[in-house]
Amino acid sequence: MADLAAVLVECRERLTESLADCCADDLAPDEADELLREAIAVEQLGHAAVLALVRRAMVGEPWRRAGDRSARHHVARRCGVSVFRATQVLETAAQLDDLHEVAAAVRSGALSSKVTQLAAATATLAPDRQADILQSARSEPWVAFKLACDRIRVAADTRSDAERHDAAQRARRCTARTTPDGMFELTWSDATTAGAALWALLQPFIDRRDQILRQERPADGDRPSAEAIVTDALLDMARAASAVPEGRERPGAPSPPASGAKAKVIVHI
Questions:
Q1: 36, 38, 69, 209: least buried by Cβ within 10 Å?
Q2: At 173, is the secondary structure helix, strand, or coil?
Q3: Confidence class of residue 1 from pLDDT cuts 50, 70 and 90?
Q4: How far is the first Cα of the chain from the last one, in angstroms, to the nearest whole number?
């Protein structure tokens, strides 16, 4: 471990010195690309070192001396991440103890922190699929890798459909917050059956919004994104369900669609 300490200190000092003198504009594009590849590898090795050390470091309860609430809060503050992300770091570090193939890949610097977390979580449920997980991690982009892990987790799940549905029901949640830039953000999570029901109720309002846009024919640059259309449609549906007086409607909001779709959503936060 003394060697590791010396390597980490030297690496940090030399990187600090080199970056202080670095001017990327002086590099040829191919040279910059090669250095980028090396920088990513160093970043991934740095995270591997964090995973190798973090649990042992927390045994000494450094968060108490620092005045933090828990190990999770201490790791979050020191790493500059959310408490949720810090919890994932601690969980991943523990999971790697029993996942030798994934751990070896992590310590070789082959996996990013995000890929490492998902690979470890998936391999914990299907330890015999570590080779498949790593093959997907190395050869596929993030979205495809996540889908592959989802399939592996489902295949390893021995619960019945009813048990999975009940678990999803128990985990359902809806949270709301206002972001620092003034946006209202709503996060809703429920079983797939509930999601399908919600979307079926919402679809006529989306269609109505699309119809209005086709009639107005806005310029390409003025047309709202698909996500914005869904956002407007969701508010339209809520207003239709709560029978907001017409005078308080937002200008331009459509009336409920002729299909008569109705929805009432009660959220406890």
A1: 38
A2: strand
A3: low
A4: 48
